UniProtKB/TrEMBL annotation, chain A:
Pfam families: ATP-synt_A (PF00119)
Keyword Membrane found: yes
GO CC terms of this entry: plasma membrane; proton-transporting ATP synthase complex
Membrane topology field: Multi-pass membrane protein
InterPro entries xrefs: ATP_synth_F0_asu, ATP_synth_F0_asu_AS, ATP_synth_F0_asu_bact/mt, F0_ATP_A_sf
Principal localisation: membrane
Protein keywords: ATP synthesis, Cell membrane, CF(0), Hydrogen ion transport, Ion transport, Membrane, Transmembrane, Transmembrane helix, Transport
One annotated GO molecular function: proton-transporting ATP synthase activity, rotational mechanism
Similarity section: Belongs to the ATPase A chain family.
Residues passing through the membrane, by range: 44-64, 101-124, 130-150, 171-191, 197-220, 232-265
PANTHER family: ATP SYNTHASE SUBUNIT A
Protein name (database record): ATP synthase subunit a
Keyword GTP-binding: no
Automatic annotation (TrEMBL), chain B:
Membrane topology category: Single-pass membrane protein
Pfam short name (any one): ATP-synt_B
Highest rank taxon of the organism: Bacteria
Protein name: ATP synthase subunit b
Subunit structure: F-type ATPases have 2 components, F(1) - the catalytic core - and F(0) - the membrane proton channel. F(1) has five subunits: alpha(3), beta(3), gamma(1), delta(1), epsilon(1). F(0) has three main subunits: a(1), b(2) and c(10-14). The alpha and beta chains form an alternating ring which encloses part of the gamma chain. F(1) is attached to F(0) by a central stalk formed by the gamma and epsilon chains, while a peripheral stalk is formed by the delta and b chains.
Organism in which the protein naturally occurs: Bifidobacterium simiarum
Family per similarity comment: Belongs to the ATPase B chain family.
GO cellular component terms, A-Z: plasma membrane; proton-transporting ATP synthase complex
Keyword Transmembrane annotated: yes
Segments passing through the bilayer: 19-38
Keyword Cell membrane: yes
Gene, per the UniProt record: atpF
Length: 271, 178
């Protein structure tokens, strides 16, 4: 029990009877390997690399051993692949358009979900998406894809005209509408994707860490009348951990679905 | 709280090494999914679909074959039944013919035998009549000789007497016949 707070990634050992409140610093951990070079690693980068290695290993072995008649694990993985294909990509874009984007969205969904789940895996206790760059790169990928789709399907000028100066709008409104639309397709879409994912990971970690830090403080370090409250925070931490597992999958689903929606918006109206 | 606000903004300022490692991870992960993971599973899905479709087609073919075989055997059975009935009918007709022929032949034979027997009886009757006539004549001569003795030694008398006697017998038998 004494290790719980530490396991949950709250850095440092709390001094006796001192309530260690999780800080923003936890998302800016010190560089521990190759410090000062462009290849430096901090704790979150390490979690990310290990998570990547484990994911590639597990999925790689699953794919290499994939049989015509699937076992339970292969069945589960296949269910995930088909879920992304049918319930995310084809649901939003239809099969004809969607086919080209199935690999991209599958990559996004599975990677984001695995990275998010690191937030509740003991000893990692930190989402691999908990530095801003990773979600940002995912979002940039979507950004590039929907611009490419727009240029390919409509042509750049036609796309801009359609987005910035939509038909059937009174001309004076264009003065407000055009800049808003421009900011939307250039900045808001990728930024919202990245910030939503990143902020969810940060907030989730802070809440779980806070719950267990409080448990550590009330139940173990200060033996007083507040012990009952410690039990409550322990239960809270437990529930929030489960909730984080749900959020991990939910945020991956939202990211993948919105990527499909943005790409689909680049296509002409008719199917 | 003010320091915290500054820290918060820091979260969104990318570090060079973070950009580097994130990009590496993204490229590695994308290559893995694009080049290996998804094609592998797509191949499995396609192969499975082909197998299932092939299996269904095979089952349909087997069903069709079985139906054809069943129809063939039923046809053969029907033909056999018809043939058997025909053979039975033929046999029955032939048997009745044989019986009829045999009856006709038997009747003819019987008539022949009867006719032969009739003829033989008639001829034997004739023979018996002739021999009887001779014997009766001799007997009567002997008898009359004994009765008349020497009186009848003369051949002329003997002959005339015999003739008159035979005449009487003939008359007698003719009268009886009437």
């Amino acid at each position: 029990m004494a290790g719980v707070a530490e396991l949950m990634g709250t850095t440092g050992v709390a001094l006796a009877a001192e309530f260690h409140v999780p800080q923003i610093d936890e998302f800016l951990p010190p560089e521990i390997i190759f410090a000062g070079t462009p290849f430096a690693m901090n704790r979150i980068v390490m979690v990310r690399l290990i998570a990547t290695a484990v994911m590639l290993l597990v999925f790689g072995i699953t794919a290499a051993r994939a049989k015509l008649i699937p076992g339970r694990w292969q069945g589960a993985v296949e269910w995930l692949i088909e879920f992304v294909q049918n319930n995310i990509v084809y649901e939003v874009m239809g099969e004809l358009r969607g086919k080209r984007y199935v690999p991209m969205i599958t990559t996004l969904f599975l990677t984001i979900m695995v990275f998010n789940l690191c937030g509740i895996i003991p000893f990692a206790n930190m989402s691999a998406n908990a530095t801003f760059v990773m979600p940002l790169l995912f979002a940039v990928w979507t950004f590039v894809q929907y611009w490419r789709a727009a240029i390919r399907e409509k042509g750049l000028l036609a796309y801009l005209k359609e987005e910035l100066l939509p038909e059937g709008v009174p001309i004076p409104v264009y003065i407000i509408l055009a800049p808003m639309q421009l900011i939307d397709i250039v900045l808001i879409r990728p930024a919202s994707l990245a910030i939503r994912l990143f902020a969810n990971m940060v907030a989730g970690h802070l809440i779980v860490a806070l719950c267990f830090a409080a448990t550590q403080f009330f139940l173990i370090e200060s033996h007083n009348m507040m012990a009952g409250f410690g039990v409550l925070t322990l239960a809270g931490g437990f529930i929030m951990t489960l909730f984080e597992a749900f959020v991990a999958a939910l945020q991956a689903f939202i990211f993948a679905t919105l990527s499909c929606v943005y790409i689909n918006l680049s296509y002409p109206e008719e199917a | 709280m003010e320091t915290q606000a500054v820290d918060g903004v820091k979260l969104f300022i990318p570090e060079t090494y973070d950009i580097f490692w994130s990009a590496v991870v993204l490229v590695v992960v994308a290559v893995f999914f694009y080049k290996f993971f998804l094609p592998k599973f797509q191949a499995i899905f396609d192969e499975r679909a082909a197998k299932i479709e092939g299996g269904i087609a095979k089952a349909e073919k087997a069903q069709a074959d079985a139906d054809a075989a069943k129809k063939k055997y039923e046809d053969q059975l029907n033909t056999a039944r018809v043939d058997a009935a025909k053979i039975r009918d033929d046999a029955r007709t032939e048997a009745s013919h044989i019986i009829a022929d045999a009856r006709v032949k038997a009747e003819a034979d019987a008539a022949q035998i009867t006719a032969n027997a009739q003829k033989s009886i008639e001829s034997q009757q004739q023979q018996a009549l002739v021999s009887l006539k001779g014997e009766v004549g001799a007997l009567a001569t002997a008898l009359a000789g004994k009765i008349l003795g020497s009186k009848l030694q003369d051949a002329d008398v003997q002959t005339s007497m015999l003739d008159s006697m035979i005449e009487d017998i003939d008359k007698d038998s003719a009268g009886k016949a009437k």
